[in-house]
Amino acid sequence: MTSDAASYTSSLEFDPRIFSADVKCNRAHTTMLQEEGIISQETAHAITGSLDELEEKGISALDLDPSVEDIHMAVENYVTSRIGEKAGFMHTAKSRNDQVATDLRISLKEEIEEIMGDLLNFIQNTVDMAEENLETVMVGYTHLQHAQPTTFAHHLLSYAQALKRDYQRLGDAYKRVDLCPLGAAALTTTSFPINRQRTAQLLGFSHVLENSLDAVSSRDFITETVSALAIMGVNLSRICEELIIWSTYEFGLVEIGDEYSSTSSIMPQKKNPDVAEVARAKAISLQGELVTILSVTKALPQSYNRDLQEVTPHLWRAVDTARDTLNLVAEMLASVKFNHQRGLELASSNFSTATELADLMVRENQLPFRVAHQIVGRLVSTALEEGLNPDLIDSQFIDQISQEVTGEALHIKEELVEKALNPLEVVKSREVPGGPAPTMVREGILNLKNWMEKQIRS
Fold it and tell me: Is 264 a catalytic residue?
C-alpha cells in the first residue's frame, strides 16, 4: 500500500478515543487465554505487565505514524517493543474485527453514562427552578398565539419531562451497547477453547453477542445511540428557541445571563442570545451525523467491511456535540431571570382566560360547552371591537352577549366572573394531574425527585 493510501485508510485520527478501551480489551483477552490454558502464565504476565505500563504512560508512548494503520497495531507494537515476539500471543483467537467492535462499545458505554448523569443534573436544576416559580403566572401558547394561563413552573416541568424521556432513551440504547463482541474473531469465532463469558465479565459487559457475524458487523448500537442524541438535540433546540423568543423586547419574559449572551459590534443596546442560537444550530448537526451513519451502513453486506470505520468519527462528533450542548443549555437556563410582572401582564391580556369563562357557564347554567363557546367567542370579538380589556368584563356584559346569542341572560354572580377572568385563580383551578395548579406542579416535582433518586440508586 502506498503512503497516500495508508494515510487515506488510516483510522489513527480518531483512534485515540478508544486507546483506554483497547488496553482493557487486550488485558481481558490475555487474562482469559491464560485462565483457559491457551497461553502460559509467564507469557500472560509479560503481556499484561506491558499493558499496565502503557496504560500508566498514556497514548503519548505509542508510535502513531499512519503506516501503523490503527491503534490496535500501535498497542501491539508497543508490547512487542517491551517483551519481544511473546507479544504475538496477545492476538491469539482474536481479530481486529471483534476488537474494534469491543473497544467502541466499551468507550460508548462510558460516554452514555456521562451524558445520562448530565441529564439528571439538568433535570434537577430545572426542578429546583420550578419549585421557586409555582405561582409565577405566564400565558401558555398554541400556534405561538395566546392560549391559556399557566405558570413558569408548569412550563419548566415540560422541559424536565422531555429530558427524562431523553434519559430513558439513552438508557434503552445502553442495553444494546452493553453486549460483548469479543471472541467473534474475524467473523466465525475460533477453534481455540476460549471463554467469551469470562472476557465479557472482565470488561463489565452484561452479555455476549450470540452470533459472531452480527458481533463484528453490527453498528446499529451506534445508530440507536446517535438517534437518541439527535432527539435530545431537538428537545434542547426547542428550549433555546423559546428563550430566544422570550428574551426579545416584544415578549420581554426572560433575560438570559450575560455570560451566555453578547453585545452587537455596532449596536450597543443589543443583547444577543448567542449560546441559544448556536445550540439551536448544533441540534441540526446531530441530525446530520445520524443521517450519515444511516447512509454508510444501509447497504453493507455481512459481515465486516472497512466502510464501518467511517461511522466512528460521526459517532464521536455526535457524542461531543450532544454533551457540550446539553451542559451549556442547562447552565444557560439556570441563568435566566423571569419577568414576573410581564408574565402576569401577558396572561391577563388578550382573553387567555376565555376557556375558563366558558367552563363557568357550563357549570353554573348547565349550558352545552359548544353554546358556551359560542357566547364567549362573541363576547371576546365584541370586547375587542369596543376596546375592552378582560378586567372590564362583568356579569352584565355577559348577559348582554348571551341574550344576543341565545335570547336568555345567564345571571352569573359577579365574584365568579371575576375569578374566572383572574389568571392566577384560573391556574389554581387546574387541579388535574399534570395541570398547572401549584398543588399539581408540586406533585409533579415530587414524582420527578423520586424517579431521580431511583436512577441514582440503580
Answer: yes
